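User: What would this chain look like folded?
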Amino acid sequence: MSHPVAAEELFQIVASKESSDLKKLELISNLKTHIKKDVVNLDEVPKYIEALSIAVDIPDLGISASSFSALSHLIKRVSMQDKSGTVLKSQSFLVLPIIINRLGDSKTSTLSSARKALEAYWFSSPKEVEDAILEIALKHRNTKIIVESVNWLHHIVNNINQHFKLDRFVPQLISLLSAQPHSNHSEVQTSIETLLSDYYNLKHNKLYKFDLARELELKNVPATVRDTIMNSISGLHPDNAPVNSKESNFVVAGTSHAENVEIVETPHPLHGSIPEDVKEIVSKFNYEIDASIPKINFDSPDKLNTAFEDLLAPFNGKETEFNWALREKNTLKMRSIIRGNAASAYREELLACLKEASDGICKSVSSLRTTLSTHGCQLVKECAIILQSDVDTLIDMFFPTLIRLCSATKHIASTNANMAVIAIYVNASFNYRNMQRIVTAASEKNVSPRSYSGLWLQIMVLRFSNTSAFFSSHGAAAGTCVDASMKVLTKLLKDPNPTVRQVAKDSYWTLWRKLPSQTELLLSKMEPNIVKIIERSKPKYASDSHPQPIAIAKVRPSLKESIMEKNKELRNKQREFSRDSRPSSRSSSDSVIRIPAMSRPTEPSIRSAVPRRTLSNSSAYLSKHEPISTISAQSDNIRSQSSDAIQPDISVNKEILEVPSHITHIPPTVESKEVVFDKKTDPILKFLSSNQTDLITEGINLLKYAIMGEEDLSVDINGLLRKISLRQPNLLSPIIVSNDHLFKRSIQFFSTEDFLRVCSILLNPIERRNIELIISLLEVDDLYEAVVQLLSYTISTSNILGDDELTMQIIRYKSTILQSVVDILRLSLEKIPIRDSYFSKLTSNLLELVSILKSTEIYPSFSKLLTSLYSINATLFFSELEIVDKSTREEVEFIVGIDHTLSLKVQTTIPNSVFELTEVQHESGYDKFSPVKAPNDFTMIWPIKKDNSEYTFLPEKELGLEEVHSSERPPPIKAATLAKDLAQVKLTENFSVEERRDPLKAYIEKSDPLRSISNRNKPITIYEDSRGSPQKVKEYRYSDWNWYNFQIAKLNSNENAELVTSCSIGNFKALCDEIKSASIADRTLASILSTLKNIEGQGLEFAEFYEDSGRFLIEQSLWSYYRDCDVLSHSAKLRGLIIVKQLLINHTRLNLLILWKTMLRLSDSSEPDVEMKHALSDVVDEVLSGIYGTDELLGVFLNNTDVGSGKGLGCSKFILDTLSKSLESSSVPLMINEELIIHLHEVLQNFTSYGDPQIRRAIIQCYGKLLKATRISNSVGNMTDNSTDKNVMEGILSRFTVTQKKLVEYYSQE
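Assistant: Here's the prediction, encoded as structure tokens.
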């Protein structure tokens, strides 16, 4: 952390003429460093600005440039710290002229700093900056400053805020165009033309383009310039711009300024639900949501998804100079999105989008650019605060990055990460994994995460200590949260860093309030100096309730401590014996337990034989038992003089370590002294840090015994074991290979990647039991992440950054690691699921290994792994396969069994009925066969199918009659003959679906080469339409421009809507059940539409099922879907209409009454809905296409208009539009009568009370079309009593005004 520069001192030295330039430059440079690295004191900012404003005018170029650079950084820092903008607003009169003058600087670096400083100032104080641009920059004498200020405005409009209001600048900009010669200022003219063109080409500004044309005319801008500007604005020619008014519509410079963006004052959504003691902790940090960020609202989840998709592009790949600004902009936009209505209206969609963007957010968080990293951390914090407990699904994605950033050396980055983690712990629900993360952070090497872990622990205890889950066991290895809390507290209280210890003391007293008995028990085991420190830090609330000092209990030392004590006594005793002395006898083996130092113990009872009690050195005990020093003196010397000289502090008996076997408890005495264990002198650390193999082996064995004894080990062991795993991995066998207990406990010393790497080397070939053990110990995502990382190392060692030892090991053990990883993956994919993101990464890496492993022994197992991946998710597998080279792609396709004989992307499948063709066995040979002279029962020549699935036509002798079994084939199809007279003509009222859609007939007709001849024998079919529908049912065209076809095209372009080429009966029923549950996803919708479009392609069995019950099943599902129409979202309502439309296209006669009432409810909206209007109109067009009779339609429409009566304009308009379309039918004149006219008149009169002009117009149209139908009916003599009915119509029209009569007459002529 840099030392702050005193503002008063800086001002005095800069303003003093006696101070040297070197001193001034030094202070300004120190201030610049302080601003860049740390937060500044806002109270001293005005004085800093005054000093720097003086320094920028100093003639010395170095001081001037450094001062302006420091000023630019200061502006950016203050804009980040002061969210209210008060500081910069108060200093705008002093700072903004300096920045604007620097816009004309010739140096690129200075110009860039001025632009960025002006932008940062605008974010904090927009009105002051805009006033300065208008009053100073655009009126400056320096042309370059004018050009740069115009370019800056263009940058704001294009890249920062497209809703920025340029109106108040337009008069001045146009004055610049008209006041000066354009030949001398072409650069000014070009920049202004570009700005105005781009601004008025924006969709929301096109309405004001005529105002611009009027302003250009009024200011006498030359015609050439005016034409250039107006021609560049799409959809407008200068001749079409009306200039009638002599007044300008633009805001005159100096008028009041209106804010351009909607600022949301977002209070803490959990402000009332956070416990007061938690509030006290978070109040010390920047926990509140920034109120200066504008919110963005969406009116549909599709727009939300589209917005996020557009934001993700810049996050692909690594961060560069070209994409970091876009990343920062998009991260800021995400912060605006979560402030809008998406968090409440479309929470599930928002969570899905955040999951998809999690990689990009993590890249922003871990960026080395402070502002980008800050925005990323703020985004994570705000997600936690706004989403509350729903943030649980995102924690696993953000936590690893945040923990790494907590260890950053940059103070601001570390503080921001801590702030985000605090927000997560304050709002996330209880999860033991979060407690495990605190335990891990408390063991980090860096000081920052260790100090932060105490704060996180306090929040967890304060929030969940009153829940049963906090005291419940979470597994044999994990224990309870209370145990984890005590473990963290123990580590933090013993931490060498004073900052960590201070946080630990606060954490102790916080835990003492919630868990008094557990904390007092913990303190009783602590060293006296730690107890004294904690007692001195006792807060006021604990003084009365905890008055007595805590007694220190005596605890027997562990095995390590016994070894250390024995080593000291050995060294003292060795001075009394000669170098070559040997003991004359040994103690009886019955009274001691022998533990070889260089090999595994044969008896697993070390832990029970050496209980963890305090070792007493009292005379009473030593008189009863032989002293330890005597036992040591009788043992063999293990080291020579030279060895002691090399390692004087780690001498230990290598042959035996003897402890009385019957000792189980040693009662403490008054004279007993506590043996304090110091981790700094831990022999395990010294052994493991050695370069000698035998000493490392000794350390591994000691570590093994310590693990078995459940000792508290130093965190430094983790780093030492990693070094050993890279240099001599075989030395780790005692803790990896020995037994399952050690294997499970050893994982705590390694990262997931290192643990898998060590296991791959030591357990080769790896057994199924070991793999299952590994899977049970690791988190799913951590396992796959580590596997992907190891695979990337084996593909190319260039993926290993700055670790030469790891590179050498990967080169040496490449095949061993690959074999183990492949075996682990094969079993893992069977037992645990894999996320799509990891599936793509894994598949991509494995495909790169195809060419590497092709000729190795691993290839068969590797091929099976690829086949498993293909069976799990063929779609993602294909997407990754398409990227690789052709030879690899062909090899993988061969492995997994992909056959391109039939393209997978064909939208229509070959029907199953292809292989169900009728077989006909002719008596005569095929050599005399003539298709033209064939009998009427000829269908096709049956081929013999070979083993290779190819068809071959065999000669007559090879095709015997006994080879064809009549029982296995359907009856032959009888071909019709040409009718000889009219009596043979078949008269049918309605043709059946089977006749219209027989897939067998369709296939034969398409494949028959003599189709033209056979068409002569087809029977003539005459269709008699039902009354009121004289026209034939219209066939639908998918090429028309309408709402339905647009939705189909949109759905086909959606990646989530997978193409379904076949559908079984069971799948169809499942799809119908999904519709009943009021949930139609993209994939479900695509599957239903694909099936309904190609019913024949699903096979004869499915076609029969659909005709018998399938169409009724899907119809009932739709009515259930729309039963509670009001709770459906807008998009959900439209999805149902798409299915209804497709059923009508298939000529399915739906229940007309239910369909009509459903459409009325959908049309009854309080607000105008253009898309719903088009959708309903599209469905009505299909209803009127001939499926139903006109009399049936009018009967339903006229008798059921009460549903929408008086409910809203939308419903009324829909009823009238539908009646108007119905009356256009050519069959209406055939059924017109007095009763129908009166009924229509009564229905239309119900809508005359509406004052809306569109409804009045629709009523007049209906009367006009009714009048037209009446006249046609009279002309053809359809009505029984023409004079009576004519009088009825005339009587209705006689009540209309003259204007209304003219309008009715006008619409009757259409």
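The CA atoms of residues 330 and 732 lie 48 Å apart. If you want, I can go into more detail on any region.
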